[in-house]
């Protein structure tokens, strides 16, 4: 249902919005980028983004029941470098997804040579060109600008004398999405029930297709490690 | 009209669970019912804190090596190239996710990747509006054989006829290119320039999209006499050292002219006819088919149709050029080289030849120049050629000059 009915619904809506216009033959990815900046085009963005995200989620699942996918040594090394272990990554991922109250997606993305976890609430998109609608913070619980208030640097200097203007949103950092989990309720409600989000996330982790993750990542050979591990050997 | 369809083939399998795999517990998610709500809210606050303190994506730092201002131009361009390559790879992997886009008309593909003669179908011609003729009152009755019928007061060109004539023209272009002939693509209407240039690029020919200067063939020496010429070998590599020999040489003429709007280029086509240069032209219902050697009955007012036809002929020329260069790699020269040119190192041999020539009588000199051979010699040469084994050149008589 999360796949067949939902995609039909989303694409039907998207076709309805774009049919007859010059955008009718564009891919959902290009449409999310196209519609990201204009609030009036929010419905188009939502459907395009959901089509893209949902398909991304499903193509990242290992559908072969006979194999158990595992990350390759290069990817494991990268994960260990960034998250200290695969289990830690799993725990972080699980916690982030479990704690998101409401629909959304949680992504594993690559930024330059770093791997990061990125939550996108509701229909937010991780694509860097659609950063206006990344929606990586839960606006129900805090102000999107609040992190700036935490940073007290320069408050007594000359630069702080001018009234703080509403600054432009940050430019799009080049993000490569590698992996995502769909935490919309309709995905796991039928099989796991209302309380089964945690179980669903656990089971999903075991079905990740790590080959696809590695295809999307551009991993360079790990450089000489000058970290603390050197002293523990 | 479903423009996008979702991929149903993997749908049902995506939700298959592995029943044999036990659940793993990393965090004590299954807590007592009394503490559930508190734990959940604590977890949410915890995540909130982490998001507030360390936003998932901090702004790109200025210390980042990718954006360091003191990188040399070479480093910057290498970075840009790498980023572009990564972007292209990413697009290949995830660019099409979300839906299946039904095949549709993309105008740029006709110029960037034109169809080849094998791709010519009646559906393609119909979609390109090649069948649209003009009002019945302004037709040229000589085109009657190409017309399928009348609809809404306009003539409809028969697409089977169009396809057949287009294939024939493609064959002509291909063979002329294979024999290293010069093909000139002409299209002087608005919007035909890109198609003409692309066709000439593919066929390694020449293009013209501005007005044809009358007399460029009949009065070529005057109009084109100052144009630069060059000498190339069979592999299309330019050879230097021919400046003196080229100085007084007659002006070159095309071996084939492809005209995409014959109605506006009567002078060009007439000059070609006077000089025995074959022409191919797109003949609409109001055009005169006798102006060209190989008419292609089609709609010359539709840019899409012109792009298809020019693309097909360009691709045909490309095939011919490939065949010619492949033969050159094998050492076979399938055309007769330009007369009177001597390699810069062989002037002594040329001098010996000219002195030998001067010893002949004027009649014999004329025969030598024109390549006329005595019937007896010709008979022996034909016999030799027919009984010659192995070499592929035996189908071409080599004239001794």
From TrEMBL, chain A:
GO terms for cellular component: cytoplasm. It comes from the Eukaryota. Signal peptide: none annotated. One of its GO terms (molecular function) is metal ion binding. InterPro entries: Mn/Fe_SOD_C (IPR019832), Mn/Fe_SOD_N_sf (IPR036324), SOD_C_sf (IPR036314). Residues 73-128, 164-215 form the Manganese/iron superoxide dismutase C-terminal domain. Component of the mitochondrial ribosome (mitoribosome), a dedicated translation machinery responsible for the synthesis of mitochondrial genome-encoded proteins, including at least some of the essential transmembrane subunits of the mitochondrial respiratory chain. The mitoribosomes are attached to the mitochondrial inner membrane and translation products are cotranslationally integrated into the membrane. This is Manganese and iron superoxide dismutase.
From TrEMBL, chain B:
This is Ribosomal protein S2. NCBIfam families: rpsB_bact (TIGR01011). The keyword Ribonucleoprotein applies. GO terms for molecular function: structural constituent of ribosome. It comes from the Eukaryota. Belongs to the universal ribosomal protein uS2 family. GO terms for biological process: translation. GO terms for cellular component: mitochondrial small ribosomal subunit. Keywords: Ribonucleoprotein, Ribosomal protein. Pfam families: Ribosomal_S2. CDD domains: RPS2. Residues 51-75, 345-371 are annotated as: Disordered. The keyword Ribonucleoprotein applies. InterPro entries: Ribosomal_uS2, Ribosomal_uS2_bac/mit/plastid, Ribosomal_uS2_flav_dom_sf.
